[in-house]
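Appendix B. Worked example

We walk through a single record from start to finish. Start with the input: the chain for HTH-type transcriptional regulator TtuA, Rhizobium tropici, length 288.
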Amino acid sequence: MAAVTEAGNFARAAEMLGLTPSGVSRAIGRLEARVGVRLFDRNPRQVSLTEEGRRFHSQVIPLLSGLEEAAAEVSGTASAVRGRLRVSVDPWFARTVLASELQQFLARHPQLSLDLSTSNYREEMMSGIDVAVRFGPPDTSSFIVRKLLETRVMTVAAPSYLKRHGEPRSPHDLAHHEALLFRDPQSGLPFPWEFQRRGESMELKISSRLMLDDPSVAISACVAGQGIFQSLSIGLAPFLARGELVPILSDWSDEHYPLYAYHPSRHLPPAKVRAFLAFVEEVARGAM
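Next comes the structure step. The output line below is what the pipeline stores for this chain.
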């Protein structure tokens, strides 16, 4: 079941397991008959978990991981960083902080292979994944949660934009400016813009003709002078150093936003998970 969930169809799951697609399909059929519910929606191109399948999967994966850990402990390899590590990382953190450091991590652990995907969706983050890294308030699920950092929220614009439109002196001035909004992947609505200083907080509903769901695209649009953007400060240093972006409303930039790591609830996570968490904390501190 875990292989089919990760692969997205029976053919790729069969390749991973060294079986035939029909053999995988029959195994899933037997499992569905055993539990008495349909676990997967099927179409000719892919399969996906049903609502019942997602609940079943979330409960079964920690148990399977526990069996793997028990086998590793018996064989004396519980402390060895080896095997395949599957991680799901926020796209902005992966591109601006983590990607350039991955070779260092793999060099430290030559018996480990890394399968990294990027996503900022919460509902899919532990589907066949050992570790997930996400910005935002912690998920109140059964996962083990570790806070990695807090990054400041900055409001930025390109010099070319400010030359054409002038610089806002207070958050209320933004009503007369072009803004670039970022869509909350959970709600589908734009993130509200919040401004904080010395204990005072102000949340504004900003109107805009351009809303995006990829922070890299939003930064590129901001650099091109298309509008003002409110962004996490982590990852912005190169743009600020090159003068492509400049901070505005700096006296209203006390807001911070957290980054968390998640892994399935268990007494002792595998050595490969512990090694990755320690590494992410290390590179996150260096990026601040």
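Two observations about the output. The chain has two domains: 1-79, 81-288. Residues 4 and 13 are 5 Å apart (CA to CA).
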